[in-house]
Write a structure and sequence with these properties.
Structural class: alpha/beta
Oligomer: single chain
Largest sheet: 5 strands, parallel
Radius of gyration: 15 Å
Order of helices and strands: EHHEHEHHEEH
Number of strands: 5
Strand content: 5-15%
Strand order of the largest sheet: 1-2-3-4-5
Shape: globular
Length: 192
């Protein structure tokens, strides 16, 4: 059975960033519901964007319909907050994170807005979210990342330490979502 898929973009992006993944999923016969969270600049916190995601899902998806959720970079943290804090865990069958700073990133220290502060390496936000991350074990979970990521430092911060891990070779963080190996892995993981 194919479930609707909601791809969630990262910092300073829109749903257009996820177009290669969306196209592959649609070509596999999947319903894709792209969401653009605004503003995605980090002005709003990850918790605020997760509320937007919840409202989008509540509006676009039937109450008893399960979905698959894909989060790229900050979008993975938005997805986790939705799952862990907004009862999204009862709505999602499979959660896939792509180059998500699950333990934060040192690069976030370059910005001073709310979202960036939350994404700092081992910030209080990250620490609190990780305090009950094992809730996600009730879902099918896949983390896809690259050890060469120069935006997520350390790159290993993108690994969840449970669920399935897929490592792809990509140097540029922004190119992860167009990486052919990654797209093939997502289609396979979703059973399409």
């Amino acid at each position: 059975m194919k479930y609707p898929v909601i791809p969630v973009h990262g910092l300073s992006d829109t749903s257009a960033r996820m177009k290669h993944i969306e196209a592959a999923l649609r070509n596999s016969g999947c319903t894709v519901l792209p969401v653009s969270l605004e503003p995605s600049s980090g002005k709003l916190g990850i918790d605020d964007l997760a509320q937007q995601l919840k409202s989008f899902i509540d509006t676009k998806v039937e109450p008893h319909q399960m979905i698959d959720l894909i989060g790229f970079s900050m979008g993975g943290l938005v997805g986790r907050y939705f799952l862990q804090r907004l009862n999204g865990i009862n709505k999602v069958r499979h959660f896939i994170s792509i180059s998500t700073p699950h333990n934060g990133t040192w690069v976030a220290y370059l910005l001073w807005n709310k979202g960036a502060k939350q994404m700092r390496y081992k910030s209080s936000f990250i620490t609190e979210l990780n305090s009950d991350v094992l809730k996600l074990e009730s879902l099918k979970v896949t983390s896809i990342w690259t050890p060469f990521d120069l935006m997520i430092l350390p790159a290993s911060s993108s690994h969840l330490y449970f669920g399935k891990e897929i490592i792809v070779k990509s140097i540029l963080h922004s190119q992860m979502v167009s990486n052919k190996q990654l797209i093939k892995a997502i289609v396979s993981e979703l059973g399409l």
